[in-house]
Amino acid sequence: MAIMEDPDKMISHMLESVDIDTLVDSDMGLETGRRIVTFQPDTMDAAMASIRDVTGANVAMSSDFDGQDIDVAGVSGAGALVFEELGIAVLDEGVGSGIAEFSTNTVGVFASNEPEIFMFPSGVNLGEYLRGFAAAAARIRDDLASGGLADSESEDLSAAVSGATWGINQVRASTSRFSGIGIKIAILDTGFDFHHPDFVGRPIIHSSFIAGESTHDGHGHGTHCTGTAAGPKFPPGRIPRYGVAFEGRIFIGKVLSNAGFGTSASILAGMNWAIANRCEVISMSLGGGGGPFVYYTQAGQRALDASCLIVAAAGNASRRPGFIAPVGSPANSPTIMAVAAVTHNLTMSSYSCGGPQIEIAGPGSDVYSSWPMPVRYKTISGTSMATPHVTGCAALLAQTTGLRGNNLRIRLRHIARPLSWPPTDDGSGLVQAIQ
Asked: Taking the mean position of all CA atoms in its chain, how far away is CA 123?
């Protein structure tokens, strides 16, 4: 089983019969054809036996790999892959002939049988993402050609004068006495640029769950999110401080490809790995349509049970009069902390999804952070950018209070700065760094 095949080929194949306009006005996810089954508590052995009996598939186990650091090439011959930290299995499309029997012959073993979907950076609505992909690609190309600052240069230099970006100042990280030292921060995204000069000497644990791709970030999104969550306290020259938990222990899980795509399976593989490593905070600036899915809800609960907290982007499906797009998956699962985005003046960002799942907000618009070389820095927007602000603040709080899991989640909400928006917009308010 390949956790993630060539994303361009998969997307092209799946879109041949898809009406993008229909997707834009729905919360549908684009299904890959594979299935994900979630086990009932304490049924691991029975579940694996059922998978073998019903489908005849070879079953690979995450514990077959040291630290549950799954080598996707190493499970290519299996029809099913079990994530033991999560109590979840992914079944290849070719072993689906017995799927219907799961709901009738294995009562008490499986809690759900759901489709795997494609996942993207920023928790965007799938239709909006696909419709805007060409324009976004053109903008990225133009930004790269101009050195990466695009039209944000004057704002960035203004931030440098104050010594920190607007987001770092608004969450009060710039005045906090804490650094996140000793706290493991997992960034599950497009990887990281390990040659970035601002991170020289920082130990970084990393693994890729995308077949055929190293953990190096060929996209940019993961490097940007890592910089916000755990970038340096004193970047070189006139560069403003852009990172919150500057001494946090960085774990990079590549769950989205260089092309910007992943699947539920690649995301779950990264979650399983981060939980196995007992990362106190797990940051996921990504998402897809549909949900809440039982498998993400169970993964979030398994994280909390292991004293880990998962923080995820609410999504960027936009707002318009009389309509606020709902929170995407996995952030819409009740066991995962959903993050909304605000602007410089603490208004809700025009793209930020909303609903009862929103728990907290972070700075999301025009956020300056690290970017793969040679660009080095870049200013972009999204709930993806808000999420690592929350991640970094969670690490600071975990460092000084010893709180973990759900207790850490509760405390983050308690110390948030109240804003003037309904809870369905910003939850408990703007995240704050412990002082």
From this structure: 8
| Interhelix angle 405-414/294-305, nearest 10 degrees | 100
Please report the DSSP string for 325-375 in residue order.
Answer: PBP-BTTTSTTSEEEEEE-TTSPBPTT--BSTTEEEEEE-SSEEEE-STTT
Question: 10 Å Cβ neighbour count for 373?
Answer: 12
Q: How many other C-beta atoms can be found within 10 angstroms of the C-beta atom of residue 60?
A: 21
Q: Does domain 126-426 have CATH number 3.90.1150.10?
A: no
Express as a percent the part of the chain with pLDDT over 70: 81
Which residues are catalytic, by number? 189, 221, 384
Q: Please, what is the end-to-end C-alpha distance for the chain in angstroms?
A: 47
Q: Which two tokens stand for residue 404?
A: 């973990």
Residue 33: CB atoms within 10 Å: 13
**pLDDT above 90 as % of the chain:** 63
pLDDT at 320: 76
**What residue spans define the domains of the chain?**
7-117, 126-426
